[in-house]
Amino acid sequence: MKTSVGSSWDVDSFLRVGMQSLLDLFDDSCEGTMAVDDQGRIAWINDKYVAFLGLKGPDDALGKPVEEIIPNSRMREVVQTGRPILLDIMMIRDQPLVVMRIPMKDEAGKIIGALGFALYDRLQRLKPLVSKFAELQWALANTKKELAQLRHTKYSISSFIGVSPVSLELKHRARRAAQLDTTVLLLGETGSGKELLAHGIHAASGRAGKAFVGINIAAVPESLLEAEFFGVAPGAYTGADRKGRDGKFKIADGGTLFLDEVGDMPLQVQAKLLRVLQEQEIEPLGSNKIIKVDVRVIAATSHDLKQLVADGKFRSDLYYRLNVLPILLPPLRERLGDLDALCEHLLEQIATRTGMPQRELTPSARAFLASYSWPGNVRELRNALEQAGMLTDSIALSAEDFATILSMDAKTSLPSGAAANGDSKASIRPLADAVAEVEKQAIRSALENTGGNKALAARLLGISRATLYQKITDFKLLSD
Asked: Given a cut of 60, is residue 468 above it in pLDDT?
């Protein structure tokens, strides 16, 4: 019989008692204790762990794979490797726990399972470490969230403000394009909302969880455009980053690449872009390595690409490759029915961003804005609203506030024959006369559109019938 020095105990009995005492201590002191068998199934779990995990009783866990009860458990790893994990930090139910896992072996040394102990509240000295870990986890999660937001879309299709028939049809086409996962070509004047709609199409597509990467081709020097698209291998040329740099196609892998102002792309780069669209693979500058990518391209331009093709400035094969699903965005002057909603939305945004009081538009301002041609579209409208708000302390913006900002076209700003006669002085009119002319034109148009129905015309103009009758008299419209 084996005995320890100075004791009548045999070693085996001593070890058994010691192990039982240790297990009893862990069971009493820990926040939870459990055991799994050699298949990673829960064979035993104490009542404290059951309560901590929010289970009704042990039967909810017994016999089930441990990952089904604790999704990020490493107990199976201990069973498979036979190596203990003495101290680890694991998140359970949004709470960090210090845990210990040890393998169980039979007399022949075969792994028959593993024991796990959740130690957190009893290891007081580890609390600062655990708290620091929790802080780092929180910071890491926030950083990942911020990075994801930088690469994801800022707008949805519903962010395109408009309820006019032309706007509703546009949004319908955009939602259909989002589901087709094919190349989209957005056509429209500067400031008409092409980038916003590109964001919206991506957000409504199956790629919404992946990156949305945009590049304004007109803003990138020709010599750098290939590097921006395809990336640069480490040390590809003098001054290149030693670690290399990923291009926009690689960054957008799995998601969407938005090519703004694609009509400004040099012919040399057009050929390489065509190859990427056909083969879905890129070759970084200075590298012989081909990288497969899965990218959906949304291109946009304010140019007439057909005319550029005819002029030899744009490849016809690339044009047909991009023009798979064209969407034409109407200029603001063709969807004036959206003007009131757009103004309200933009004024609210401006107030939020600048901290200034939110402005409102008077009927005269609405009529004035409706008579303008808006060559800069929604972007110009936003600029005009912001400028008008900065130049007055009044909450209500009138036509006079905009007349000094917007240069009206010849029809509304020049008297008949002035432009033809080249009279530069005649182009300058008293402000009151210019505003009156705008109001007169707006009322005449409203009456024509409603067939002379004054009640409906007043509603369209946003003024009362009494005001309309008074202005009709003042402008002598009945005698026109």
From this structure: yes
CATH number of 334-479: 1.10.8.60
Helices 431-449 + 454-461 axis angle, to 10: 130
Give residue limits of the domains in the chain.
13-129, 157-238+245-330, 334-479
158, 98, 164, 106: which is closest to 133 by C-alpha?
98
Please give the Cα distance from 231 to 229 (Å, whole number): 6
d(CA 232, CA 283): 9
CA pair distance 389, 355, nearest whole angstrom: 12
Homologous superfamily of 157-238+245-330 in CATH?
P-loop containing nucleotide triphosphate hydrolases (3.40.50.300)
* Structure-token pair, residue 173: 């086409």
Q: What is the DSSP string of 270-312?
A: HHHHHHHHHH-EE--BT----EE---EEEEEESS-HHHHHHTT
HEC-encoded secondary structure of 98-128:
EEEEEEEECCCCCEEEEEEEECHHHCHHHHH
Instruction: For domain 13-129, give its CATH number from 3.90.1170.20, 3.40.50.2300, 3.30.450.20, 3.90.850.10.
Output: 3.30.450.20
Read off the DSSP letter of residue 329.
P
Task: Examine the pLDDT at 255 and tell me if it is beyond 90.
Answer: yes
> Residue 228 and residue 258: Cα distance in Å, rounded?
13
Q: For residue range 153-192, what is the model confidence (pLDDT) as tens digits?
A: 678 898 899 888 899 999 999 999 999 989 999 999 999 9
Q: Which residues are CB-neighbours of 144 under 8 A, at least 6 positions away? A: none
Q: What ranges in 159-221 are assigned the alpha helix state H? A: 165-180, 194-203
When pLDDT is cut at 50, 70 and 90, the band that residue 278 belongs to is: very high
Give the whole-angstrom CA distance, residue 321 versus residue 416.
49
- Per DSSP, helices labelled H in 297-376 are 305-310, 316-322, 339-354, 363-370
pTM for the full predicted model: 0.58
* Count of positions (residues) in the chain: 480
User: pLDDT tens digit string along 374-411?
Assistant: 999 999 999 999 999 988 889 999 998 898 888 644 33
Alpha-carbon Rg for the chain in angstroms: 36
In angstroms, the CA 24 to CA 18 distance is: 10
Interior/surface letters 14-34, b for 16+ CB within 10 angstroms, e for the rest: eeeeeeeeeeeebeeebbbbb
CB 284 within 8 A of CB 236: yes
Continuous segment of H or E residues that includes residue 187:
strand 184-187
Q: Please name which of 174, 180, 166 lies closest in space to residue 196, comparing C-alpha atoms.
A: 174
* Structure token digits, residue 23: 């297990």
Q: Is the pLDDT of residue 75 over 90?
A: yes
Contact predicate 447/457, CB 8 Å: yes
Question: What is the C-alpha separation between 192 and 170, in angstroms, rounded?
Answer: 12
